[in-house]
Amino acid sequence: MALRRCRIHKLSPTLTGKKCVSSTQSAVRTYYSIHHPDPAPFPPIQAQILSTALKNVPRLGFSRDALLSGCRENGYLEASAQLFPRGVYDLIHYYLVTQRLALKEKVQFQQDAKLSLTQKVKTLTWARLQANVDDGIIEHWQDALGHMSLLENIPASLKELGNLSDEIWYLSGDTQVDFGWYTKRAQLAAVYAATETFMSTDRSKDYADTKEFLDRRLGDVRVVGGTVGGAMSYMGWIAGNGLGLARSWGMKV
Q1: Angle at the Cα of 139 from the Cα atoms of 135 and 142, rounded to 5 degrees
Q2: pLDDT value at position 91?
């Protein structure tokens, strides 16, 4: 994909220009290799601006104002927002990617821990959902879902959802790669999307209703510990549930 070259301006006694490359592509998990670190998902300047903007989301929401605040607080002119051609969605995407990558530090299972695969997947899934609360953005998450459901943003949103599912399975210790794995990946993605949407309107104490919802959905699809035989089963599931995956996240497709 061609990289978009642009110029940003840093605030200083004398304004000077600095060329940079705009790119907010997500890092692809090195699923097949655990011996190399993940590449940096965002260029340094973009990451600096987005990280600062994200801190203002609890107050400003996922908005252009939050994005512009990230520019200003790092000494850049507001015109530097051109670094983010997808606007507010780039801020949302940054949050999705960085939270996915943070899971491996937030949740670490001891080697002698007697946890089933089911328990590990549930723990990791809940840790990611809980981050929306801990970071103070849960009240703005319906707006974020609205941006994610825009036609131009659906492919990137679903791709990152798939990456999150990959990460959860990987960190749970499931490294088997076959058609059963691909099906579990898609099913867990659908469960996560539906649960996150439910959580955005949950008003129960400590999100107890969301926890029950997650338990139910995992049980309904028997996503953990199950096996699926062959390519036809996988393709059949996608045909019947592919659109449902997008709709689970409230996407109008």
Answers
A1: 115
A2: 98
